[in-house]
């Protein structure tokens, strides 16, 4: 049995009390541990973003009745669009403090359902769009204070954005791509007040009639400054500044859809920097639902989820997909980059699709994907959770290397009884095996630089750390991870850089070592902003520190 001590906050937030929850985990050959942090946070975690303050912004939607957590100070919100409650005195957003394991309710004024977002270079969260009164709204959450609230820009978007994707660009702006019946893109902030949206016919071409299968497109910044955009079953390399398609990639083998509602997930595999260049950029896409699965689910037939993954080197002159088979089929899974460069595949179901009541058979076991291993030896099944994480579940990486997991609400409203998968308000943490106690002596601890250190492109920086064990210099690396915005099985702006350290590891004291790293060379490889820096030894990462890359 594993246990975790945590704070439970009452729905009224009038008082706090402490408790210890015993949470069973499977032991043996499988890796990783699960801990229940809160049996309820009051809302269902449909969207999550880690801030540089080590707080996590979480929100669901405002139009489906009262949540289980009250707004502070008797605040209420009038909402003509709420289906069942026009005067709502409950919160639909919270701030989760990782260090204290505590929760603060936040007031969001307009509907944030199925929206998108990313951190700006100054660490503030920019969240875009939503539903009804929220579909043209831009919301700002400032990272700089412990009592900040949401600020809203009512008509910040030129077009309605619902199920769109955001990405930070090398110049610090965000691009917002697509959304339901939006075959275009726009920027925030805008170059001028009159700037409008730009047409993107690729989103028309990838739209399946009456199904879509191209919402929440997978968008990644390539190392040449252009965007890789994947929707449905194919992709383009896109020059957003000239509104020009530079390359059309081959269709993923099998032709099955990978985007909402046939929801798979995707990551840009770690970018290794050597001599100020990245030799290749590679995308991994896993899971989803087969052709026809959505309409079958609507009619009560729940097809098995896809168990295939596709890898493609998008920087190659003649790129081709290489296909692999997961040990478990999965739809609505999340793919997260771990600090040591492994990929975690977590959450989701083994039948059906995304959407109201269309998923079946939760996949409780996460899977680790070790991208540098030989093919057929890359997947490793992990210990299971006991909580279904279906449609509208989320997962993000924390600074200490754990994965924060929450959400699951496959219903139109909050439904806790007489349904197959009740609305889930709990919050868990998954600890990969690199956090096991028997790895503690090999785990680095960063001494310097200090957290929140600001660095320049190409700057040479000495990183000092301790390890309570013999160190093999060949197993030391330094990684940077961009904190991502997670919703609907996709982590927007997710990026991991393996920095150039050469063979510089040297002993500077008892169990104390130093390595010289070179900061990323440009905004094409690492857009300016906040990153988590980790020292990795024998695939075991340190706790991260925040650094700020200045453009």
UniProtKB/TrEMBL annotation:
Record bears the keyword Membrane: yes
Transmembrane segments: 15-37
Keywords: Membrane, Oxidoreductase, Secreted, Signal, Transmembrane, Transmembrane helix
Cellular component aspect of the GO annotation: extracellular space
Localization annotation: Secreted
An annotated Gene Ontology molecular function: oxidoreductase activity
Domain Galactose oxidase-like Early set: residue ranges: 443-549
Listed Gene3D superfamilies: Galactose oxidase/kelch, beta-propeller, Immunoglobulins
CDD domains documented for this protein: E_set_GO_C
Stretches assigned to the Glyoxal oxidase N-terminal domain: 46-434
Keyword Secreted in record: yes
Protein name: Aldehyde oxidase GLOX
Lineage: Eukaryota, Viridiplantae, Streptophyta, Embryophyta, Tracheophyta
């Amino acid at each position: 049995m594993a246990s975790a001590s945590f704070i439970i906050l009452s729905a009224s937030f009038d008082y706090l009390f402490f408790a210890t929850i015993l949470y069973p985990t499977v032991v043996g050959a499988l890796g990783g541990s699960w801990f229940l942090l809160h049996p309820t946070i009051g809302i269902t975690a449909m969207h999550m973003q880690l801030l540089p303050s080590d707080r996590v912004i979480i929100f669901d939607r405002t139009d489906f009745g009262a949540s289980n957590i009250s707004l502070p100070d008797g605040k209420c919100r009038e909402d003509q669009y709420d289906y069942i409650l026009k005067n709502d005195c409950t919160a639909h957003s919270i701030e989760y403090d990782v260090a204290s394991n505590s929760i603060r309710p936040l007031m969001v004024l307009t509907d944030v359902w199925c929206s998108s977002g990313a951190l700006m270079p100054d660490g503030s969260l920019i969240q875009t769009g939503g539903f009804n009164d929220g579909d043209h709204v831009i919301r700002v959450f400032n990272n700089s204070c412990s009592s900040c609230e949401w600020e809203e820009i009512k008509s910040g978007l030129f077009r309605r954005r619902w199920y769109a994707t955001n990405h930070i660009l090398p110049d610090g702006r965000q691009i917002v791509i697509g959304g339901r019946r939006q075959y275009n893109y726009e920027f925030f902030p805008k170059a001028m007040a009159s700037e409008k949206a730009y047409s993107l016919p690729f989103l028309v071409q990838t739209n399946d009639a009456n199904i879509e299968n191209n919402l929440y497109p997978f968008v990644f910044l390539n190392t040449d400054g252009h965007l890789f955009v994947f929707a449905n079953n194919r992709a383009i390399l896109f020059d957003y500044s000239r509104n020009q398609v530079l390359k059309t990639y081959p269709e993923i083998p099998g032709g099955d859809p990978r985007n909402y509602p046939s929801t798979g997930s995707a990551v840009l595999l770690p970018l290794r920097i050597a001599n100020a260049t990245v030799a290749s950029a590679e995308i991994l896409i896993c899971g989803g639902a087969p052709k026809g699965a959505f309409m079958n689910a609507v009619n009560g037939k729940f097809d098995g989820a896809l168990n295939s993954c596709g890898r493609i080197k998008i920087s190659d002159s003649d790129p081709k997909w290489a296909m692999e088979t997961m040990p478990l089929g999965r739809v609505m899974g999340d793919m997260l980059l771990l600090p040591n460069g492994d990929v975690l595949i977590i959450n989701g179901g083994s039948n059906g699709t995304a959407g109201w009541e269309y998923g079946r058979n939760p996949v409780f076991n996460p899977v680790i994907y070790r991208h540098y291993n030989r093919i057929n030896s890359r997947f490793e099944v992990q210990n299971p959770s006991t909580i279904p994480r279906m449609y509208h579940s989320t997962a993000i990486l924390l600074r200490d290397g754990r994965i924060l997991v929450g959400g699951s609400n496959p219903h139109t409203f909050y439904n806790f009884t007489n349904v197959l998968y009740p609305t889930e308000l709990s919050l868990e943490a998954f600890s990969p095996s690199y956090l096991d106690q028997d790895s503690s002596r090999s785990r680095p601890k960063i001494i310097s630089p200090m957290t929140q250190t600001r660095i320049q492109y190409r700057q040479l920086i000495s990183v000092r750390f301790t390890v309570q064990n013999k160190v093999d210099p060949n197993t030391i690396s330094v990684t940077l991870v961009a904190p991502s915005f997670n919703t609907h099985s996709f982590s927007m702006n997710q990026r991991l850089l393996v920095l150039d350290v050469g063979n510089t590891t040297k002993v500077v004291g008892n169990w104390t070592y130093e390595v010289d790293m070179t900061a990323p060379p440009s905004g094409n490889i690492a857009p300016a902003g906040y990153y988590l820096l980790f020292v990795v030894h024998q695939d075991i990462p340190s706790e991260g520190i925040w650094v700020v890359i200045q453009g």
